[in-house]
Amino acid sequence: MSISDLVIRKRDAAATRAALLKAATAKFVAETYDNVSLRTIAADAGVDVSLVSRYFGGKEELFKAVLDNCPPPDELFVGDPADFGERLSRMLIEDPMRQDKPDIFLIMLRSSDHPIAAAAIRMSSEERFYGPFEKFLGGENVAERARLAASIIKGVVMDRLIADDLGLPPEARERFRVRLARTLQAVVTP
C-alpha cells in the first residue's frame, strides 16, 4: 500500500468503514466471535486497527454492525400469509442458494455460544426477523408460530448448506418441497 493509498483512504471515511465491514463480515462468517481479532480485520481492510474504534467503537459494536449490514429477509414477508408455505418452500428448495443470505446464518451459528454475540444476535433477530415476521403473520400465538417456522427454515437452510440438493433426486426433492409447504403453512396458520 502506497502513501497515496493511505491519503485517499483517510479522506474517504465511507470507503474505510465499508472495507472494515466487509473484512469483519468475512471473519465472522469463517470464525467464532472469540477467534476474530480486530487487528486481523483491520489488516484485511488495509487500515490501522485504531480505525475500528473510530468507526465502530469496539468488537461488540462492530459485530452488531456486521449483523445489521447483512441483507434483511424482507422478501419472506411479502404477499399473503395464506400462501406463505408454498411461496417459502419454493424459495428454500428451488431457488439457488444466494451467496449473501447464508452469511447471517453462519455468523449466528459460529458465534451464538459467546454471551456478547448471543445478545447481539437475539436483538438483531427480534428487530430484523421476528418482529417483521410476527407483524406479517398476525393473529393468536404469533410469537410461537413465527419461532417454530423459523426453526424449520433454519433447518432447511442448514441442510442446503451441507448438500444443495438435500441429497435427494429431483422427484424426491419435489415431494419434500410439497411436504415442507404444507408443514410451514400449518405452523404459521393461527
Describe this structure in words.
This protein is mainly α and 190 residues long. The chain folds into 2 domains: 3-58, Arc Repressor Mutant, subunit A; 70-188. The protein is 72% helix and 0% strand. It contains 10 helices and no strands. Helix 5 (59-69) runs parallel beside helix 8 (115-137). The longest helix is centred in the middle third of the chain and has 23 residues, at 115-137. It starts with a helix and ends with a helix. The model has no long low-confidence stretch (mean pLDDT 90).
- SS-based structural class? mainly alpha
How many strands in all?
A: 0
Q: Mean pLDDT across all residues, rounded?
A: 90
Radius of gyration: 19 Å
H/I helix tally: 10
Instruction: Give the biggest sheet.
Output: none
Low-pLDDT runs: none
Proportion in β-strands: under 5%
Oligomer: single chain
Whole-Å distance between the termini? 58 Å
Task: Indicate the overall shape.
Answer: elongated
Please bin the fraction of helical residues: over 70%
Order of helices and strands: HHHHHHHHHH
Total domain modules: 2
